[in-house]
Amino acid sequence: MTYLEINLNIAPDNRPAAADVYNKYKAPFLKGIKGARSKDLLVRDEDVQVLHGFDSVDDAKAYLSSERFNQDVVVELKPYMQSASDVRIYDVI
Hints:
This protein has helices at 15-32, 57-65, 67-77, and strands at residues 2-8, 36-43, 48-54, 86-91. By secondary structure, it is an alpha+beta fold. It has one domain (2-91): Alpha-Beta Plaits, CATH 3.30.70.100. The termini are close together.
């Protein structure tokens, strides 16, 4: 199992709109992205995190390079982000 963690600095007032973007792309992610296993939205006072589960590191990297991620998700979230996102990939051993 591999996790792709994306931390987003989104102001509390913009979080409902960002959650709408998350909800819009959750099902297509799980159905259409190779190796996708899970996708969860985690919210705390400091930031918002999207935690994606994949079969492999290669699948996570491929998603980060995909048109869906770069042309859809990133474009729709950009107006709500206060700074660049922090992206990390973890491999469970």
